[in-house]
Amino acid sequence: MKKVMFYDPKDIRIEECPVPKPGYGEIVVRNKVALTCGTDVKTYMRGYPGDIPPYGFGHEASGVVYAVGEGVAGISVGDRIVCHNSAPCQTCFYCKKGIHSMCDDMLYNMGAFSQYQLIPKRIVDQNSFILPDTMSHETAALMEPLSCVVFGAERVGVQLGDTVVVNGAGPIGLMYIALLVKKGAQVIATDLSETRLKSAKKLGAFATVNASNGEAAAKVKSLTPGGRGCDIAIEATGYPEVWEQNILMARKGGTVLLFGGTKAGTQLIADANLVHYSQLTIMGLYHTAPRYTMAAFELLKSSAVKAEDFISGSYALDEIETAILEHAKGTCIKNKILFDV
Asked: Can you give the residue ranges of every domain in the chain?
C-alpha cells in the first residue's frame, strides 16, 4: 500500500509499506476519501510541536472496513465508516474531571493520507461511526474538524441574537459561521481572501470585512449595535496578530476565543488595562472530546454542514503535495484526496 510520511518541513514522501493487520479490538479501514486542512498546511510548512518525524501525515478521512480484529462488536467488513483521529484515556485526572481535550494520555492516530489505516481499539470503542447510506465519504471526513468547532461553539455560550465575529474564513472559520448562524447569532466574518468571504456570506454571515485593508477591529466594531463591539470574538487562523485584533473586537464583558494553533514559542501581546477594565473573558481551546465528535456526526447526518460548501479540488494520493500547496494559497476551502483513482 501507499502511505504519505512527514520527514521535515516541505519534505513529505509517499512510501510503500505492508497493509496493516488488526490486533485485538482494532480494525483496518481502506480509505476512500481524505481531506486537507489548515493543520496539514502548517505541519507541511513548519512541522508540528512535539511530534518527532518521521510520522504519518493527514487526519481527516472516511472509508470502508477492510479487516476486523478479535473482540470488535458492531463493526463488520464492508461497513462504511468514519473514525476520529484521537481518543482520550478516560482514566487520568483530566478525563475524570470531564476535560477530555486535556487528557494526559490522549491517543492520536495520524496517517489519513494512506490507502489503508489501522484504527486502534480506543478509537474504535469511543470515536468510530457507521455511515448511513445517505452520507457520502466526503461529508463524513468533515467530522474531525467539525467536532472541534462544535466544542468551541458550545464553550463560548452563544445566545440567540448575539453578535459574533469570526476572524478567519478558512475551513474552521466557515464551520463556526455555519453553526453559529444556526444557533441564532448575527455573524461577522473577516479574512484576507474575497473568495473565502463570499463563502462566509453563503453560509449566513450578515457582514464581511476584508482584513487586508487594515483597521479590521474598528471596522468590525462599527458593524455592531452602538459600535460597542461583539458579544463573542472568535479567532480561527493561528496567527498572533489576529489573536491580538480579535481581543480588540469584543465589547465590555464579552468573550474572546483564541482557537487557532500558533507556532511554538509565539507570544501574545494584550492591553492589560483593556482586559481588566472591560472585564473580558479570554478563552483558549484545544482539540475536542468524544461528546462533541458524536454531536458533529449527528450534525453531518442532518446536513447542517454540507461537503459541497467546503471541498473544492480533487487529487490522487500521488498529488498530495500539490493539494496541500493549493490549500495554502487560500483560493479554496479544502481539497480531497481520492484513493480509488
From this structure: 2-142+310-338, 149-284
In CATH terms, is domain 2-142+310-338 a member of 3.40.50.150?
no
Do the first three CATH levels of 2-142+310-338 and 149-284 match, i.e. the same topology? no
> What is the tens place of the pLDDT at every residue in 8-48?
999 999 999 999 999 999 999 999 999 999 999 999 998 88
Taking only the tens place, the pLDDT of each residue in 77-105 is: 999 999 999 999 999 999 999 999 999 99
Cβ partners under 8 Å of residue 303, min gap 6:
none
Determine the Cα–Cα distance for residues 316 and 138; give it in Å rounded to an integer: 14
Q: Does domain 149-284 have CATH number 3.30.70.141?
A: no
CB 330 within 8 A of CB 195: yes
- Residues 192-208 have a mean pLDDT of 95
Do 314 and 334 meet the contact criterion of CB atoms below 8 Å apart? no
Q: Residue 261: which pLDDT band, with cuts at 50, 70 and 90?
A: confident
